[in-house]
Amino acid sequence: MSTLETSTAPIPLPADDTETSRTEPTPAFAARWRVLPVVLSAMFMAMFDWFVVNVAASSLQHDLHAGQSALELIVGGYGFAFASALITGGRLGDLFGHRRMFILGMLAFGAASLLCGLAPNSWTLVAFRILQGGTAAMMVPQLLALINTLFPIAERPRAMAAYGATIGLGAVAGQVLGGLLLEANLFGWGWRTVFYINVPIGLAAAALAARWLPRAEARHRTTLDPVGALGISGALALLLVPVTVGRPEGWPLWTWISMAASVPVALLTAGYEAGLGRRGGAPVLDMSMVRRRVFSAGMLIGGGYLTFFAGFMLCLTLLLQDGLGLSPLRAGLAFAPLGLCFAGSSFFLARRVADRIGNRVMVAGVGAGLLGALIVLIVLTCSGREVSVFALVPGMMIVGVGNGLTLPSVIGAVLSSGIPPEQAGMAAGALTTSQQFGNAIGATILGTTFFAVLGPAGGAGDYVNAMRAAALVGLAVLLIALAAAFALPRHTVR
């Protein structure tokens, strides 16, 4: 096991807009850069499995005779289980150790993926996908908490840049690698291959994490808050389940009742959590942390951008495959420039821009997303009823740059704004929840707009019109995120 080395790094003050003027020794794990790819593999796998099912949808319909509702739940069930359990998963890491929860989460995710691949019918696959999303929520919050505790503040921007690049690579790999796996049809497994591939990756990552991550880790002798865990998960599930299945089911009465019930459940849970914190307890979500300016704005910016991005990706996939007739592999390759720009801007641009303009990098990132969506909208408007894939690529690339600038900057700003180590997992879980909630709600908002304009005819020109309407809604969402980005102080940490 590697030893700990000491480095001098600035310690952020609690105030959101106060710059740091003092330094203290901060322990830095010597093997941190060697273990970083292992830790980031959790986010890669989580994003890969979010997007790969879009590519496999037609195969699932053919092999499992999955109806539209079952297909929506195969895609969305993973998402709402993932989002609903993230805060609890992060808090479990704070209580029982991020190393332990990361390894357990990796093993559980691999086991759930194996069950998905073995599913004999569509509704069994729905159940296993929900289980897979819950296990992803065990491992993903730990990686941000580990970055926050293993890396000194001066090195965190580079680690966060790698984190942002991993999100982009995982999302695009779901489209491109998923198409390749389906076309290769290894061992005749077909769509099951996209789940089986997680098993050896998860086993290898868990083994390397057990070997390389430090065992000496702070533990906090508190108990898990079951009321908060159930309340937060329940409120998110009450909203996300009807959002996921409402459109294919025709928005029956129960979906509206469920969404309405999510509001009082969320308010009651927030009140309970605030009271527990005032009494000196250990809430799943510290409401005083949520009320901080940087934290709340970061959640809104990250969630808002991914609301746009997830819906934008879904609608573009529908346009390319169903409207323009591209195969899943060719459609996935069309997204490759977007993914490369996402990963490249995260790794090479975000940190350098942030060093120069501080938190305003998020303004630049959301602004780039606005510009890219506007270019796509202009192309769709000027092309009439015919559109070329190549004409859409510049706008898609700028959207990728915007995403790559925004997400690492949001996370870096929030986790460097004075979050105490014992709340690192909670903060990571809350941040990732806002992003995954944006993923889930964005696919519904832009997707519902898309299908409403598309209508029953579904000709190529109708798909262009539907994409145009979805792009307009996406622009409105980005404007809200841009307003939140302008509300941030210029610098959080010097």
Written overview of the protein:
A two-stranded antiparallel sheet has the order 1-2. It is built from 17 helices and 2 strands. The N terminus is likely disordered. The protein has 494 residues and is mainly alpha-helical.
pLDDT averaged over residues = 80
Distance between the termini: 33 Å
Class from secondary-structure proportions: mainly alpha
According to DSSP, the number of beta strands is: 2
Q: Count of helices?
A: 17
Low-pLDDT windows of residues: 1-27
Order of helices and strands: EEHHHHHHHHHHHHHHHHH
Biggest sheet strand order reads 1-2
- Helical content class: over 70%
Percent in strands: under 5%
Radius of gyration: 22 Å
Cα shape: globular
The biggest sheet amounts to: 2 strands, antiparallel
Brief description of this entry?
By secondary structure, this protein is mostly helical. Helix content is 77%, strand content 3%.
Key structural traits:
disordered N terminus; 494 residues; mainly alpha; single chain; 3% strand; two-stranded antiparallel sheet
Topology (SSEs and partners):
Blueprint: E1 4-10, E2 23-29, H1 32-64, H2 68-96, H3 98-118, H4 122-150, H5 156-184, H6 193-196, H7 198-212, H8 226-249, H9 253-278, H10 287-290, H11 293-323, H12 328-334, H13 336-357, H14 361-382, H15 389-415, H16 424-454, H17 460-486
Antiparallel strand pairs: 1-2
Helix pairs in contact: 1-2, 1-4, 1-5, 1-7, 2-3, 2-4, 2-8, 2-16, 3-4, 3-7, 4-16, 5-12, 5-13, 5-15, 8-9, 8-16, 11-15, 11-16, 11-17, 13-15, 14-15, 14-17, 16-17
